[in-house]
Amino acid sequence: MLLSKLAIVDSTLREGEQFFKSNFSTGDKVEIARALDQFGVEYIEVTSPTVSPQSYQDCKNLAQLGLQAKVLTHIRCHLEDAKIALDTGVDGINLFMGTSKLLRQFGHGKSIDEIIDIATEVITFIHQQNPQIELRFSTEDSFRSFLSDLLRVYLAINKLGIVNRFGVADTVGIATPHQVYQLIQEMRQCFSEDIEFHAHNDTGCAIANSFAAFEAGATHIDTSVLGIGERNGITPLSGLIARLYTLDPETLNRKYSLSYLQKLNQLVAEKIGLSIPFDHCIVGEAAFNHKAGVHTKAVLNNSQTYEAINPSYFDLNRSVLINHKLTGKNSIAHRAHQLGLNLETFQIQAITQTIKTLAEREKLTSENVDEILYSYKKNIG
Ligand code: HCA
Ligand code: CU
After folding, report:
1. For residue 92, how far is its CA from the centre of ligand 1 (angstroms)?
2. In terms of domains, do 209 and 323 share one?
3. Active site residue 295
4. Same domain, 158 and 202
5. Does 284 fall in a domain?
């Protein structure tokens, strides 16, 4: 699968609404949708209009914003839901239905044959009402479903010749990258329609699983900003972007406004009342900090030595930290040079030793380091 052809289905406004801290107002939804559009995701998935009268209004409103991104809504595979969704003017409808034994027994209570019958009825109805609408059918809890059941459902629906894409959902975040690769590859061999993948992050594999899906031929990957969603969420947009960056930064940069990623994350973080996690890919506070002397020396010579991702694509800066006991003479010399201080090697060595000794005893700031450098120069000068 080519990176240029991959589409991101961002579900911050659907799966993200299921996050325990989310409570987006109409205004929040519009702001987030516009920000996602500015970043350049291809699709924006929004909460089902059947949830409440306000969700219905919001869905309609978002569909009419005139965004570049296609607006999708996500509904149960029910005729009643489909009628309401059709009324909102969305570009596409994402249908889903559980196929695992657990969901069939304790969720909707339907057999595989009944699932096929209902899906056929709903899909045919939607197509009759609006042949232009983009349709996706997804099996919920795909990785705890029998492969034979999944293929039976996909192939029966595919015969209708209506659905644009089939979805695979790792609903409880249980799949491994290997399993994801195998399932998508199997599907790829059975039909040529697009394939969407939705990964939960319960075992920390959401980004790796999404990438495995892409490698096996998935055409659409679901994300949410900061990964927000049910429990601990789904594939975070920044994580997917980081993973894809390593393939081909230039293509990625042409597809998306990478320099807007930080603002988009900040906006969503603000709306849910949390800060961006320090270790979040690209936009977390720690992402571009270099510390140990061995690292800082090499990074100052060539940043690629210890960076898979160049922060400048994202309008971010790297920090080379020198105010600690792990610091080294090369980084101190670099800082002295930046400050316009001309010091001999033996002097730099002495200053480095002073900084290391002091840092063992107390917390030093970068300003402290600069003061030490200035005062050394003054005393000897
Ligand atoms: C959920 C549904 C879903 C649907 C994914 C999809 C999941 O349990 O809330 O439509 O592809 O994780 O299975 O988000
Ligand atoms: Cu989900």
Report:
1. 16
2. no
3. yes
4. yes
5. no
Q: Which tokens belong to 161?
A: 């010749």
- Strand 92-98 with 134-140, pairing: parallel
Cβ pair 334, 321 in contact under 8 A: no
In angstroms, the CA 279 to CA 287 distance is 6
Q: Which of 198, 200, 295, 334 does the annotation list as catalytic?
A: 295
Q: Ligand 1 — pocket residues by CB below 6 A?
A: 15, 74, 94, 96, 138, 140, 167, 169, 171, 198, 200, 230
Domain boundary among 244, 272, 300: 272
Dist. CA 44–CA 46, nearest whole Å: 6
Q: Near ion ligand 2, which residues have CB within 5 Å?
A: 15
Looking at the fold, whether 10 and 137 belong to one and the same domain comes out as: yes
Q: How many domains does the chain have?
A: 2
Same domain flag for 359 and 221: no
Q: Which pLDDT does position 25 carry in this prediction?
A: 98
pLDDT band of residue 356 (cuts 50, 70, 90) is very high
Closest CA to 175 of 139, 121, 135: 139
The model carries a pTM of 0.96
Distance from the CA of 195 to the center of ligand 1, in angstroms? Answer: 15
**Does residue 282 fall inside a structural domain?**
no
In this predicted model, what pLDDT tens digit does every residue of 157-207 receive, in sequence order? 999 999 999 999 999 999 999 999 999 999 999 999 999 999 999 999 999
288-327: pLDDT as tens digits: 999 999 999 999 999 999 999 999 999 999 999 999 999 9
Quickly list H helices, the chain.
Answer: 26-39, 53-63, 79-87, 101-103, 112-129, 147-158, 177-190, 206-216, 237-245, 249-255, 261-272, 293-301, 329-338, 345-361, 366-380
